[in-house]
Amino acid sequence: MSEKLILTIALMGGTGKVGPGLAMRWANAGYRVIIGSRDEAKAQGVAAELNETLGIDSITGMENSQAAEAADICVLTVNQEAHEATVKSLRQAVQGKIVVDTTARVDYKDPHPPGPPSAARMAQEVFGPGVRVVAAFQTVPAHALKKEIGQPLPMSVLVCADDVDAAEEVIKLARGADLRAYYAGDLDNAGTVEGLTALILAMNKHYGSRTGSLKVTGIESE
Q1: How many domains would you assign to the chain?
Q2: Which helix (H) or strand (E) holds 4?
Q3: Residue 108 lies in a domain
Q4: C-alpha to C-alpha distance for 27 and 74, rounded to whole angstroms
Q5: pLDDT tens string 101-160
Q6: In what order do the strands lie in the sheet with 8-12?
């Protein structure tokens, strides 16, 4: 059995915009997936919908802290308004794990690059040294993740972490979701990635698109 078939991934805030798309891609690739939410019933409802869409029954729903405790790797897919409270509430549940933070501190109605520190850096400071935080997936449009499940997406994921080994684990997860991923420096660099997210959103808004993204060329990631 390959590594990806035994990994369990929990998406805290997985009922929002980004979580369901990532959940579908990972579940389709063979990972065990848990949808997390503050509302367990809501998480179970979304999990049931995703299972029906994919024709499977392997996605489950739990309350956020229970999902985190049951997972090998945790993924924060909350919006920026809920980020601080969610991070504080999960501090104990995620100890000893890799936590992937997808948060971009950007106003979607009026997108501008945020100042430091990055959302992932703030999460690392709250979680402490027992958790390895990795920033990723900020520049990937949620709308695109739900399309053509099982097919490669023509966009790149920039992965930032202080721990390069943790970053490499998340790069493997990105590949499992049919995305190309690249290590882009430490958690402070994640603030620049959030800024790129603001630029992509501004461009999407101007050109009437929902799937504009970032693509790295000239570098082989595998």
Answers
A1: 1
A2: helix 3-6
A3: yes
A4: 15
A5: 999 999 888 999 999 999 999 999 999 999 999 999 999 999 899 988 999 999 999 999
A6: 59-63, 32-37, 8-12, 73-76, 98-101, 132-135, 156-161, 180-183
Burial class of residue 54, CB neighbours in 10 A (0-12, 13-18, 19+)? middle
Q: What are the structure tokens assigned to 170, written together?
A: 């998340």
Tokens of 69: 């405790």
142, part of any domain: yes
Distance CA 21, CA 149 (A): 9
Specify the range with the lowest mean pLDDT, choosing from 148-152, 161-165, 178-182: 148-152
CATH of the domain at 180: 3.40.50.720
Q: Can you tell me whether residue 188 is helix, strand or coil?
A: coil
Please check whether residue 200 lies inside any domain of the structure.
yes
Q: Give the residue numbers spanning the domain of 109.
A: 3-207
Establish if 128 belongs to a structural domain: yes
